[in-house]
């Protein structure tokens, strides 16, 4: 039997991890939406690249933004295929 303080510590750690992952997933969702909108605008008119408009004078930062949006898309793709029904449909790790 674990002491109460150890149980509380583990519970706090679990809650912290859940909240942190929720924040990461929310940020990833927003970045994927921004990236999708940017690609849509580029499809309409190649001169409407929002990232380039905002960061055109900083090409290195512009590339970093594209990389972060790409990582966010990969994270969302992994989450899409992760849920195998193991939680009886109560999980959120497979939801986009």
Question: What labels would you give this structure?
Answer:
96 residues; mainly alpha; 3 helices; 0% strand; elongated
Concise structural overview:
About 75% of the residues lie in helices and about 0% in strands. With about 100 residues, the chain is mainly alpha-helical.
Care to describe what's here?
The chain is an all-alpha fold and 96 residues long. It has a domain at 27-78. It contains three helices and no strands. The chain has helices spanning 4-44, 50-55, 59-82. It is elongated and about 55 Å long. The termini are far apart. The model has no long low-confidence stretch (mean pLDDT 80).
Task: Give the helices and strands, then pairings.
Elements: H1 4-44, H2 50-55, H3 59-82
Largest sheet: none
How far apart are the first and last residues' alpha carbons, in Å?
Answer: 39 Å
Based on DSSP secondary structure assignment, what is the total number of beta strands?
0
Mean pLDDT: 80
Percentage of residues in helical conformation: over 70%
Q: Report the order of strands and helices.
A: HHH
